[in-house]
Specification:
6-stranded mixed sheet; binds ligand 0O2; Beta Polymerase, domain 2; 21% strand; 245 residues; alpha+beta
Length: 245
């Protein structure tokens, strides 16, 4: 589940369930999902898991803040907002476990850190395609952000039509006992790409259902339409920019 930051009428951040630890829920989920052992072992495991998830949440907050800062600066300089929304999500214990098993990795906490790069996810929805690449450059130019992997599904869309720019980055979080490097997946999309992906996700993504060639073709056609919309909006923006000069 991806969340959008909630703000009250004065602009203050409203804490949501990402920032509270539902100990009971977690206890039940983790005990049944990850391992069976003595109560003591299980408790130690849970404490370690909670701590690790807290680190990922902190990394997510760090990256979200970086985008908020860039947004403020850009809005001031250009009188428009390049970001139409930021959503974050922490992978659920169940998805973590499923992914480890799917990929053939051990189901341990060390393995989570070592082998999974998308526990913390930040999705940035941009106004125009150009904003996607501007924000990518601005993020990667920061000296505490290291690029680990880049997949440009905008220039090379997936076969089903999915478009988005994905980065896996590493960034430090600063704790009382020093800094810790954490991995975060950042997805950049335009509004049109996000609309398509959200609807397609509801319709089929990872539901394990086979879809007919006809439906797949229709989804691809919708992706092309949404790309056409992005291209036309880019052109309109350029025309308006040129007319201002
Ligand atoms: P959610 O709901 O975002 O948590 P994998 O992570 O194993 O699935 P890979 O190749 O490592 O695959 O990662 P990739 O291709 O970079 O894609 C990972 C994420 O991108 C997915 O995360 C989705 O958010 C999004 N995504 C990728 N392909 C599609 C697609 O075809 N349609 C839609 N709607 N989204 C896509 P999760 O964890 O699978 O899902």
């Amino acid at each position: 589940m991806w969340y959008t930051e909630q703000r009250d009428e004065k602009g203050g951040r409203i804490m949501d369930e990402r920032f509270s630890t539902k100990a009971q829920d977690l206890q039940e989920q983790l005990l049944s999902l990850f391992r069976e052992g003595s109560e003591e072992e299980a408790r130690a495991f849970m404490d370690h898991f909670n701590l690790l998830m807290t680190y990922y949440r902190c990394a997510m907050m760090e990256i979200e803040t970086k985008f908020r800062v860039l947004e403020e600066e850009f809005s001031l300089q250009h009188d428009r907002n390049p970001i139409s929304g930021i959503h974050t999500r922490l992978k659920s214990p169940q998805s973590i476990r499923e992914k480890l098993i799917r990929r053939g990795f051990p189901v341990t906490l060390d393995s989570v850190e070592e082998n999974l790069t998308d526990i913390a996810g930040v999705r940035v929805i941009c106004a125009f395609r150009e904003d996607v690449y501007y924000l990518e450059r601005a993020l990667l130019a920061q000296d505490d952000v290291t690029l680990i992997q880049r997949k440009d599904y905008i220039r090379s869309p997936k076969e089903n039509g999915y478009r988005s720019l994905h980065l896996i980055i590493s960034t430090p979080i600063f704790l009382s006992e020093g800094k810790r490097m954490m991995k975060v997946e950042v997805q950049f999309r335009t509004i049109a790409m996000d609309s398509w992906a959200s609807l397609e996700h509801q319709l089929r993504y990872k539901k394990g259902k086979e879809i007919s060639d006809g439906v797949a073709g229709e989804l691809r056609a919708c992706a092309e339409l949404s790309d056409d919309l992005d291209q036309r909006m880019d052109r309109l923006r350029q025309i308006l920019l040129d007319s201002e000069e």
